[in-house]
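Why does this matter for the project? Reviewers at the last site visit asked to see concrete outputs rather than summary tables. In response, this paragraph embeds two records directly. Each consists of the residue sequence and, immediately after it, the corresponding structure tokens. Nothing has been edited or filtered.
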Amino acid sequence: MPESSIPRKRSRGAAMLLSLGLPGLGELYAGKPRAAGITFAIFCAFTAISIGSVFAPLPGVVVVLVPLTVALGAWVITLVRAARAARQASEPYALRAYNRWYWYLLGVLIGVFVLRPATVRLIRSQWLQAFRIPSAAMEPTLLVGDFIFASMRPPDRQAHRNDIVVFESPNDVGLLVIKRVVGLPGDTLMMRNGALVVNGVSLHEAFVQSTDSVGAVGESLERGRAWHVAHLVQRAVATYRPTMRNWGPLVIPRDSVFLLGDNRDESFDSRFYGAVGLDRIRGRPLKIYFSFGSQDGHSSVRWARIGHRF
């Protein structure tokens, strides 16, 4: 008797495990290649809907529940279809040419080590990325312990005044940082006693926080002085000694933007490393999907911040 005609039984557990490795592989194991293709298409569609729902204007915790529910639904459907295909397989089951352990292994390896990493890279670079805020540099806009989604779509890589942007640090390759755009290409910026002056106009920035720490008042910007001097106007270079709250005026290069943290006394930003090239902007914050940290003297979930959009 040829091996392909040896009676076999299809295991629902095996079908489900195979589909965990690659959606649809369980149906292929059960001899239903067409159903396998449909399951894979359904899984991809649900994944796209889950990602797309993050961009929708959903309120509060719904912003978390909808993507999670859709993603969970994709896996439930995948596993149910795999189990049903195995249950409905004819008994005895005659093995097909593709019912070989090495084809299953190849499918799982492709799913786990090729398709999933490639999909994650595509989503993170072109659509969506999640971050946890680790420092107080953007307080009070972003608090330590805020978990945010950021849009990495090409249209969201444009810089406008007062936008909060995600950009690649000029100091650490691959490190993504979040700051606010305060100076556009060609602008003349300066700071006097903590007040930002843009093109000769002193701004009142409602989103800014100053801790009024004694150290910040006179803290030297010696580390960034070389960049300052290269873009300095109307000042004697020899006597120029920039500090955290007093510097400039500086002219921003035509291909760059000047970025500051909202917590001006606690932020490592363009005052230290200079303007950032437009080509380093990767996206912008979209919404807070979770927040946990100090509140009323103790750590807890900050429910009121969940769902906040920028």
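We now turn to the second protein, recorded in exactly the same manner.
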Amino acid sequence: MTATPAITSTTSNASTTSALNNSLASLASNAQSFLTLLTTQLKNQDPTSPLDTNQFTAQLTQMTGVEQQLLSNQLLQQLVNQSSGSGVTGAVGLIGQSVTASGSTATLQDGSATWQYTLGGTAANATVQITDGSGNLVYSGAAPSGSGAQSFTWNGQNTQGQQQTDGGTYTATFSAATSTGASVPVSNAVSGTATAVEQVNGQTMVTIGGVQVPLSSVTAVTEAGT
């Protein structure tokens, strides 16, 4: 029995939405306070010296600015809510298709970086070398072996165990060999049938052969079986 491809969306825009909501509540509170103060001022003004027309106009202009900011925040929040699932919706058509994703560079985020690669045969062992943006070797060690699509996640620590700073771009070079020492071809790409689409930490991910890759790394899509 063939499993049904999974389509899930775990939106990570909570912090952005929360910030917008807090800003919206603050502006709404300021607007209410302004109306209260203005009404009180009008009620208690000196009849012999009423509020200057220019000053009153300036206050109304400020109030209009607050109202416009409230509207802008509401529209911005609508855009955030609408965009949270747009990437998933646009990528649904990849499910069931033969997809190829490539890329040997990755950005260190939240203390880790992940690469995907494909072994062109059965490897008894595999290794990875990671270099920084200047080409300096930062880390080398074992990588997942076996055959087919693989995924390697680096914990962001160099060979001496020092944690590297988030935001840096790193390049991974993989090599593999059989049990007899023969070299196994390695491609910094994953090819296979897309089985799922998911939004992870605000990024649309496509599952290819059991490995998740960013939608932005997809380089080719062909009809399955061709």
